[in-house]
Amino acid sequence: MSDTYFQKGFGLKASVGPVVAQSYHSGVVQRLKQLGYDATAGDLRMKLAREFGFCYGVDRAVQYAYETREQFPDKRIFLVGEIIHNPDVNTRLRAEGIVILGNSNDPAVRFADVQPDDVVILPAFGVTTPEMEYLRQKGCALVDTTCGSVLNVWKKVHRCALDGFTVIIHGKHYHEETRATASHAVMCEGKYICVRDIPEAEILCSFLRGQVSAALIKEKFREASSPDFDPERDLQRIGLANQTTMMMGESMAIQELLRAATRDRYGEASLDYRFSAFDTICSATQDRQDAVKAMLAEGDLNLMIVIGGYNSSNTQALAQMCAPRLPTYHIEGPGCIEEGGIRHRLVKQAERLTPDWLPQGPVTLGLTAGASTPDSVVGDVLERILALRGQMANDLV
Question: Would the CATH topology of 57-147 be identical to that of 149-277?
Answer without folding.
Answer: no
